[in-house]
Amino acid sequence: MSEQGNKSAGLFDLRYILALLFGVYGLVLTVMGLWFTKPEGLEKAGGVNINLWGGIVMLLAGIAFTAWARLRPIVLPDAGDATGAGEG
Q1: Cα–Cα distance between 84 and 88 in angstroms, integer?
Q2: Residue 1 falls within a domain, yes or no?
Q3: What Cα–Cα distance (Å) separates residue 30 from each residue in 59, 67, 79?
Q4: Where, by residue number, does the polypeptide cross the bilayer (predicted)?
């Protein structure tokens, strides 16, 4: 089978959209955890900076989704390669 005419899904790949969402939310939470956490908030969370740790985890998830999408892109077949299309 030839790979010449095939295209990848590109920006329409759901993994890129999820990576963007995780990245943006992770960045916001990380900034909130680093610079806007008050001692009262830390007391409520048992001394753990939840915004910081949650933001870091979300940033790592965004990086993982981006790496996954780049390393294993979804390849779309050509329109002419659709076998059995319209048969019924």
Answers
A1: 8
A2: no
A3: 9, 21, 44
A4: 16-36, 48-69
